[in-house]
Structures are given as C-alpha cells and as structure tokens.
Design a protein that fits this description.
The protein is α+β, with helices and mostly antiparallel strands and 215 residues long. It folds into 2 domains: 131 residues, no CATH class; 47 residues, no CATH class. Helix content is 35%, strand content 25%. The protein contains 3 helices and 8 strands, in the order H-H-H-E-E-E-E-E-E-E-E. The strands form 3 sheets. The protein has a 4-stranded antiparallel β-sheet with strand order 3-4-5-6. It has a two-stranded antiparallel sheet with strand order 1-2. A hairpin with a 3-residue loop joins strand 5 and strand 6. The longest helix has 65 residues. The relative contact order is 0.10. The mean pLDDT is 74.
C-alpha cells in the first residue's frame, strides 16, 4: 500500500516539473516575440525618421540651389549663430524657408523635424576646416543639420554642407532704387556703387560711366 502511494506521489511531482519546464519555455517564447515586435517597431520608426530627415535636407538644397537669396534673407549670421530652428515650407510655390519646426505624422507616430545651421571656413586647398575660423569664413557655404525627433528622446540627424552654386547673388530686372549699398548686394532694389561716377538712369538696364560721350 505504501509502495502504491509513493508511485502516485512521484508521478505528481514529475507532472509539476514538466509543467514548470513547459511554462518556462512558453514564457521565454512570449518574451522573445515581444522583443522582436518591439525591435521591429523601433526599426520602422528609425527608417521613417531617416527618410524625413533626408527629405527635409533635400528640400533645403532645392531652396538654396535655386536662389541663395531665399536662404540669406534670414541672414547667414542669424541662421548660424542662434539656436533657432528652421524648416522648408513646401505648401507654397516655390518652396521657402520658415522659422520653427514642423510636425509630420507617419503611421500614427508624430515626428518633429527642423534644420540647424553652422558657419563654415575653408583652409588649405579650399578644404572645409574641422574647427570654424573667422579669418577663413566661406559665406557661400553652410553646415546644415537635419534633425528628426519622436517619442521619448528618440532622434535622428543628418549633416550636409550646402554651398551656393550660382554666381549671382540676386536676380535684378532694372536699376531702380538708387545707389549707396556697398559690398554684396542684399537688397534687390539697390545696386553696388562706391561713388557717383556710374550712370544707370539715362538708359534703363544699361550701365555707363559719367563724363564719357556715347554715340
């Protein structure tokens, strides 16, 4: 009788051990599945953020490549020296710079993206210097960082050096507005002249030197 009870007790213990082992493996499988899903969601968010960062950077490149004056209208110094944030407004034609950050929702996740700027200097062989030097500043190049943030502190950023590719500072259709502006012309209504020796009024669109008789 005692032998039979002992066998029954042993079978119960084995059953409990087996159930514990099965539960352990099931719990591990569930945790692994949850981890895989979490990593998949994180990778998806990273891919979306990287795409948004590159898109914003491409949009800025379009603005700067088409008309550097649309960038400089904010003032290169102000862009680079302040911690302000900017983005490219693509809801208007042509695209234009705007201050602040913009929110973009992708698959239910809200991403905030913005641009920050730094001045650039060039040293030997026109190479960009790792540390900015006022003496070697290149006013036609900016270091642009496209930032995308989401969730609780998640962030992706892409850096690019954007240079003014066209020679013209602005496009001017006539010489109305008068002189008095020296250096790089930043006002489309004015022209660059150091004295009164240039005649721009006698014939629209034509520059002449005063004191010379023209046929």
């Amino acid at each position: 009788m005692n032998e039979i009870n002992s066998q029954k007790g042993q079978s119960l213990i084995e059953l409990l051990i087996a159930m514990g082992i099965v539960g352990f493996f099931i719990g591990g499988a569930v945790l692994s599945a949850q981890l895989a899903l979490r990593l998949s969601a994180q990778n998806k968010n990273l891919q979306a953020a990287a795409f948004l960062a590159q898109e914003l950077l491409d949009n800025f490149t379009v603005v700067g490549g088409r008309d550097w004056h649309r960038v400089d209208m904010y003032g290169i110094d102000a862009l680079a020296e302040s911690p302000s944030q900017y983005f490219v407004d693509i809801t208007i034609t042509p695209f234009a710079m705007a201050s602040g950050a913009e929110s973009v929702v992708v698959d239910g996740v809200t991403y905030t993206r913005y641009l920050t700027f730094s001045k650039v200097s060039r040293g030997v062989s026109e190479a960009i210097e790792a540390i900015y030097s006022v003496a070697n500043e290149d006013p036609s190049t900016l270091k642009v960082v496209s930032n995308v943030e989401w969730g609780s502190g998640s962030k992706v950023d892409i850096t690019k050096f954007v240079a003014r590719s066209k020679n013209n500072k602005i496009i001017q259709t006539d010489w109305a507005g008068g002189g008095g502006q020296l250096g790089v012309v930043g006002d489309p209504g004015k022209y660059d002249t150091a004295d009164a020796g240039i005649d721009v009024l006698s014939k629209k669109g034509v520059i002449r030197l005063n004191g010379i008789v023209y046929p």
